[in-house]
Amino acid sequence: MTATMMSKGLEGVVAAETRMSFIDGEKGVLEYVGIAIDDLARNSSFEETVFLLWNQRLPKRAELDAFNKDLRARYELPTGMDQRIASLPKDAQPMHMLRTMVSSLGMFDPSPNAVDVPTARQKALNILAQAPAIVAAFDRSRRGLVYVNPDASLSFAANFLYMLNGQKPTPTMERAFDACMILHADHGLNNSTFTARVIASTLSDVYSAITGAIGSLRGPLHGGANEDVMRMLGEIPPAADCERFIQEKLAKKAKIAGFGHRVYKSYDPRATYLKTLAKQLATDTGNQELYEKSNAIEQVMLREKAAKGIYPNVDFYSATTYHCIGLKLDLFTPMFALSRIAGWAGHVLEQLADNRLFRPDAEYVGPHGVGYVGMAER
Ligand code: ACO
Predict the structure, then answer these.
(1) How far apart are alpha carbons 18 and 351 in whole angstroms?
(2) How far is residue 214's CA from residue 179's CA, in Å, rounded to a whole number?
(3) 222 is catalytic
(4) How remote is the CA of residue 171 from the centroid of ligand 1, in Å?
(5) Which of 85, 108, 113, 231 is the most exposed place for a label (fewest CB within 10 A)?
(6) 287 and 207 in a common domain
(7) pLDDT at 353
């Protein structure tokens, strides 16, 4: 096929098939394997959701038990990795740390390059199981605290919060965090997922694909926006007028973090669920002010920008939610990554099962026929 059109940002270009998530951006629909995201957030668990994404069906009880057992058996980091994490600069940014340490997992794998689908799936499960320990180990180390070994009796969500805080979470916090993990798990061919698939398409390895995706996710136009939302909420003093704050930003043509989406031109269904969750958690944890500020910002934005299809996205209310769960600001984007590893890995498996090297063209817009000018004549 010869290149006939250019789409800057690849907008409107369909570049892969997937059986995992379906998005209707006009109607505000997100489904994983045909199940509405809200239904999953209310009724499923993160582990069950990962099984669903990777197998395109819900597991039977015995299958889910086996999947949980397999995942939990991989919670432990490779020997010595906690010390290596403790030796990292304490002021390193967690996303840079996570990208680097996920990449380093490949060095502990005796066959890191295997890309047959069953073996690649094992590697994906390892990364999914161990990424929480990497984040928790780093956060504890920079706080001067000792590493907490994972607890294989706990769910993915509870185990992460346990390793981070040194104590088991309440059922409410476990459930809230689990729901966040479900909501962020997959989202079509977003930038980081595309990155993962592009890397996988060279038949490089799963570690490289996930590492590249983490690098993509941290950008403020993508997963980094949840941290920007929190910074923005922090900039507005308690008694200040949200209306004026937002209007001033809009007057300067600034973008408001947590609003707008390349695909959704209506309310992001993940934001719908997260708004309710954020409200509940804010009430439970005495953070009503934060929720009220968020809601006030949303009302201004809806009035000013809904006509242009700009609504809250997944990052807007996840900021308040993560804050109420007790997570530090610079861990917000790593939380997105812990969950999205499920989606990235699922897409890598889909890519490997039916691979075609990604190699688009660029339209050359530079000059032709320019003679070489020697150094002395320039
Ligand atoms: N605040 C104010 N105006 C906005 C916003 C916003 N957050 N987002 C888009 N707009 C406006 C733009 O200024 C532009 O207006 P114009 O037509 O008058 O020039 C119009 O809406 C279209 O915006 P684009 O940036 O061209 O839309 P695009 O599809 O490229 O952008 C994006 C999507 C990058 C997410 C954008 O909305 C944005 O920067 N949002 C803020 C960052 C953010 O929240 N990112 C997280 C996205 S969700 C995720 O990745 C998990």
Answers:
(1) 9
(2) 21
(3) yes
(4) 36
(5) 231
(6) no
(7) 98
Indicate whether 320 and 347 sit together in one domain: no
CATH, residue 277: 1.10.230.10
Contact residues for 344 (Cβ-Cβ < 8 A; gap 6+): 192, 193, 196, 209, 210, 213
Q: And the tokens for 216?
A: 């993509």
Q: Are residues 209 and 230 in the same domain?
A: no
From 139, 315, 323, 347, active-site residue: 315
- Tell whether 156 and 304 lie within a shared domain: no
pLDDT at 65 over 70: yes
Q: Are residues 230 and 216 part of one domain?
A: no
Strand, helix or coil for residue 232:
helix
Residue 259 CA: distances (Å) to CA of 132, 228, 233, 234, 311? 28, 11, 14, 17, 5
Distance 192 CA to ligand 1 centre (A): 17
> Is 277 inside any structural domain?
yes
The pLDDT, as a whole number, for residue 3 is: 52
The model's confidence at residue 237, banded by pLDDT at 50, 70 and 90, is confident
Residue nearest ligand 1's atom 37 by CA: 260
If asked whether residues 21 and 82 sit together in one domain, one would say yes
Q: How many CA atoms lie within 13 A of 8 on its CB side?
A: 0
Residue 139 belongs to domain spanning: 16-166+186-220+340-353
Residue of the CA atom closest to atom 24 of ligand 1: 262
> 35 C-alpha vs ligand 1 centroid, how far in Å?
27
pLDDT of residue 142: 97
Question: How confident is the model over 73-129, as pLDDT tens digits?
Answer: 999 999 999 999 999 999 999 999 999 999 999 999 999 999 999 999 999 999 999
Most informative mutation of 30, 216, 255 for ligand 1 (most atoms within 8 A of CB): 255
Is 169 exposed, middle or buried, given 0-12, 13-18 or 19+ CB atoms closer than 10 A?
Answer: buried
Which ligand 1 atom is at minimum distance from the Cα of 221? Answer: 45
